[in-house]
Amino acid sequence: MLSLLFRLCECVFRERDEHKIVRELSINDLKNHLCPTNHSDFVFLMPFGEPAVRAVIHEAKFHGNEKAWRLLGEILSDYLKHFPEESIVIPIPLSSTRLRQRGYNQVTEVAQRSGMTTSSKPPSSSLPRLRADLLYRKRDTTPQTSLTRQERLKNVTEAFGVRNQPDISGAHIIVLDDVATTGATLKAAEATLRPLRPASITLLALAH
């Protein structure tokens, strides 16, 4: 009887294929795909074409999967340890509309699970600080995946703003996104931050 009930539940509530991949995925499995690569204007950590990478990104982005956030957070943490001690990570923000609909910014969630803090770093921390409060999206933009390269560049031009003109002059900035294809979104964020005269800006995507 229980076996029959279990099979019935499986039919009615079929597990997403990508959810199953993430459920069975270990951090070592994911680290097998870690290969930080310079791609023109940005750096990416993993190839999006790998099924495990694509699954963990999709689960983190569209389904708020806690395990996916944690796995990606560990990948990010390992990479960020190589940056200068006083670096600052700035996640690509969602529009206010999309944030209300989704209930979270997956890039910020991943960054938080990497072990970064938003306040002054504790003495034992080797990670940059997280500042999700600096950059904001001034307008809603069309999802980049549906656009051509030229349309993507136009879509995000002047899409971002900076709150309260923070003093980041001389700081090492890491702009973080989950997936980059052409890097147009990251470049638009860089153009917004560059006038504040940071020492450097690294454009970083978890996957490409």
Structure overview:
With 208 residues, the chain is an alpha/beta fold. The chain has one domain (17-207): 3-Layer(aba) Sandwich (Rossmann fold). 40% of the residues lie in helices and 18% in strands. It has nine helices and eight strands. It has helices at residues 2-12, 17-24, 27-31, 51-62, 66-80, 96-102, 106-113, 149-156, 184-193; strands at 37-39, 42-46, 87-91, 129-130, 135-137, 160-162, 172-179, 200-207. It has a six-stranded mixed beta sheet, sandwiched between helices. Helix 4 (51-62) crosses helix 5. The radius of gyration is 18 Å and the shape is globular. The termini are far apart. The mean pLDDT is 88.
Helices, strands, pairings?
Elements: H1 2-12, H2 17-24, H3 27-31, E1 37-39, E2 42-46, H4 51-62, H5 66-80, E3 87-91, H6 96-102, H7 106-113, E4 129-130, E5 135-137, H8 149-156, E6 160-162, E7 172-179, H9 184-193, E8 200-207
Parallel strand pairs: 2-8, 3-4, 3-7, 7-8
Antiparallel strand pairs: 1-2, 5-6
Helix pairs in contact: 2-4, 4-5, 5-7
**CATH topology assignment:** Rossmann fold
Mean pLDDT: 88
Strand arrangement in the largest pleated sheet: 1-2-8-7-3-4
The CATH architecture would be 3-Layer(aba) Sandwich
Low-confidence stretches: none
Largest sheet: 6 strands, mixed
How many domains make up the coordinates? 1
Radius of gyration of CA atoms, rounded to a whole number: 18 Å
